[in-house]
Each structure stands twice: as C-alpha cells, then as structure tokens.
Amino acid sequence: MADPVRPHRRCAAGLACAVAALVAAGTACMRLDDFMFFPDRSVSPPPAGVEERWITTADGVRLHAWYAAGPPGVPTLVWAHGNAGNIACRADVLHELAARGLAVLAFDYRGYGGSEGRPTEAGVYRDAEAAYDSERARGVRPERLVCFGESLGGAVAIHLASERPCAGVVVVATFTSMRDVGRAHYGPLAVLAGSRFDSVGRVAHLSVPLLVAHGDRDDVVPFALGEQLFAAAREPKRFVRVPGARHNDVLASAPLLDAIAAFAHEVAG
Predict the structure, then answer these.
(1) What CATH number should be reported for the domain holding residue 160?
(2) In sequence order, what DSSP letters do the residues of 185-197 get, joined into one string?
(3) Tens-of-pLDDT digits for all 269 residues of the chain?
C-alpha cells in the first residue's frame, strides 16, 4: 500500500472561510465571487515525472496544469481542486493517484497558481471544460475520462459531467449546495449565499457511475450533506465513508485513494 499523504496548510480551511465571507458579503451587498475563492498565486516547478501544461479556455484564459502520465489506455482523472491554494499543494496526492495506475490532469482555476484571470463560478466551470477538452484533443476517449473533484471542486466535477460525456464522476468532501453549507454554520443567514454551486440539483440528472466519499468527522461540510448528495443521485453509485477524516485531511487516506483508483479502473478501464 502506498504511503499516506499529508494535507497542506495552503489548501486548508478555504471553504469554511468562503462560507463566512459569503454571508458577510451578502449582508453588505458586495460582489460575492470575490469572497468565494482563496487562490495562492505562487507557482512551483512540477514534481519529478510530472509534465507542465498550458490550456486555453473558450473565453481566452490561459490555465496552468500538471499532468501525470500513466500506462497506455489507463483511465484519466480530470481533477478540479478545492477553493483554496493551487495544484502545487496537492502534489503528494497527484503522485499517489498516479502510483495507482491512473493518468491525472490537475489544473488550476483562473486566478490560481500560474493561471491567468479572476475566478468566478461560471469561470471555473469553463476552466474544467477546457481541461477536459484538452484531453479529448490529445485523443483520450470519453470512456477513459473520469471527472474528479474535492470540496468545491466536486461541484465543478458534477457540472463538468453534466456538460461533457465521461466514464464516471468522483467527488470527495463535496456539498449539496453552498447555501446548505452556510445553513449548517450560520442558520437562516445562509440564504445570503444564494444558489451558488447547486450540486444536488445537477447530480440527479447524471447518468454515469458516481463515487461519493466523505470524512465522517468533516468539520466544514457536514457528513450529512455528503449523504444527501449521494441520496439525490441515480444508480449506479457508491458511497465511501472515511472514518475519522476531517475536511482538509480526507485525501490523506490511503484506503480512500485505493477506492478512487479501483472505481476509475472499473468504470473507465
């Protein structure tokens, strides 16, 4: 079994801060997208064995990405990360997934890492579509592509799968909607978060296999929201409870990474 990976501090607590900021911004009638995203603009060289790539979106934004190759014909994960940090603080997980026989394309949203632009909800959806399209342009067939997202990135992955054909979807520590996360922490004030990142409304329409994973000690997105997201989805679907995992360390679980790899090989192998 591969060694467990460690959460990186630059990726931590972003969603909790976003929910608080959205509520505060809503009360002040401020531009809510400015409080949704917590990018780290620092750029690190790609790890050994990882290729640096550049992707241009449909609206002309240049994105930074890393690609870990796998053996010919293996599934490819198109990985949408959470709302904090950038791909550099997820390098350990990238290597661990590649070590399990997967190809992985990890991209930074606009405004993150080396990517141009400024993040918005609509913009990060376009970014995921561009990442997916870049793999299709390289000859990867839809039946070999798995949409993968963590936290807010799970909402992005679900949206991507509703717009592009794929073999399956994997979401980790993902919520039903931003409003529901806010409700868990701030009660009625959550209405100020609006209808952003409505995953539960989209997941019911997916027709591909789905894996939902959630830490049972998640202190940001309550475990119950992961269960509700799973309940709203069609079959075939699978739920993985990660014992003892919190929001920011769930991907440090080697058994979870094993389950993600096994699912990807099953649906796209």
Answers:
(1) 3.40.50.1820
(2) HHGGGGGGGTT-S
(3) 344 444 444 455 455 555 555 445 444 444 556 667 999 999 889 999 999 999 999 999 999 999 999 999 999 999 999 999 999 999 999 999 999 999 999 999 999 999 999 999 999 999 999 999 999 999 999 999 999 999 999 999 999 999 999 999 999 999 999 888 877 655 544 455 556 799 999 999 999 999 999 999 999 999 999 999 999 999 999 999 999 999 999 999 999 999 999 999 999 98
Cα 177-107-47 angle, rounded to 5 deg: 130
The residue whose two tokens read 């709302």 is 83
The answer to whether position 1 is within a domain reads no
Burial degree of 225 (CB within 10 A; 0-12, 13-18, 19+) = buried
> Catalytic residue numbers?
151, 218, 247
Q: List the Cα angle 186/189/190 in 5-degree steps.
A: 75
Question: H/E element holding 214?
Answer: strand 210-215
210 is a domain residue: yes
DSSP 37-73: -EE-----PPPTT-EEEEEE-TTS-EEEEEEE--STT
- Give me the domain span that covers residue 129: 9-268
Q: Is residue 87 part of a domain?
A: yes
Number of structural domains, the chain? Answer: 1
Taking the model in full, what pTM does it have? 0.89
Angle made by CA atoms 246, 252, 254, in degrees to the nearest 5: 120
Asked if residue 220 belongs to a domain, the reply is: yes
